[in-house]
Amino acid sequence: MSADALGFQLTEIDHVAIAVRDLDAAAAWYQQTLGATVAHRERIESDGVEEALLKVADSYVQLLTPIREDSPVAKFLERKGEGIHHVGYRVTDCAAALESMKAAGATMIDAVPRPGSRGTTVAFVHPKSGFGTLIELVQE
């Protein structure tokens, strides 16, 4: 199906999110071993996380650590340990992408788009609809 028929378009990978227990240590490791530096850092109270974004070309590696024990990332770390948490895909229109995915039968975590980090608009797709991968739709 074409992007026109879907009502939205994936434009690129926005980020790969990695859940970590120690954000400072993980950011330091990426800088020391890969030369990646933190381009943006933010606490996202609504998700109970703090992030450090490492710029890689036009995308990011997003390091996430929980700031509350009840956050989804805290629960992920408890169940699975550190590692890839989700993949964020840039879309031209987050609301259109969310509606199109719902119409196609995808299970959404977010019923409507919401504010994300660095001024983006986001919506999450449940892993059972993404072949075991949590997907974030990101509109800049």
List the keywords:
8 strands; 25% helix; 4 helices; single chain; alpha+beta; 39% strand; 2,3-Dihydroxybiphenyl 1,2-Dioxygenase, domain 1; 140 residues
Annotate the secondary structure layout.
Layout: H1 3-6, E1 10-19, H2 23-34, E2 38-44, E3 49-56, E4 59-66, H3 72-80, E5 83-91, H4 94-103, E6 114-115, E7 121-125, E8 134-139
Parallel strand pairs: 1-4, 5-8
Antiparallel strand pairs: 1-5, 2-3, 3-4, 6-7, 7-8
Question: What is the number of helices?
Answer: 4
Mean pLDDT: 95
Gyration radius from CA atoms, angstroms: 15 Å
The arrangement of helices and strands along the chain is: HEHEEEHEHEEE
CATH topology: 2,3-Dihydroxybiphenyl 1,2-Dioxygenase, domain 1
- The proportion of residues forming helix, as a percent range, comes to 25-40%
What does this molecule look like?
This protein is α+β, with helices and mostly antiparallel strands and 140 residues long. The chain has a single domain (3-139), classed as 2,3-Dihydroxybiphenyl 1,2-Dioxygenase, domain 1. The chain is built from 4 helices and 8 strands. The protein has helices at residues 3-6, 23-34, 72-80, 94-103, and strands at residues 10-19, 38-44, 49-56, 59-66, 83-91, 114-115, 121-125, 134-139. The longest helix has 12 residues, at 23-34. The radius of gyration is 15 Å and the shape is globular. The model has no long low-confidence stretch (mean pLDDT 95).
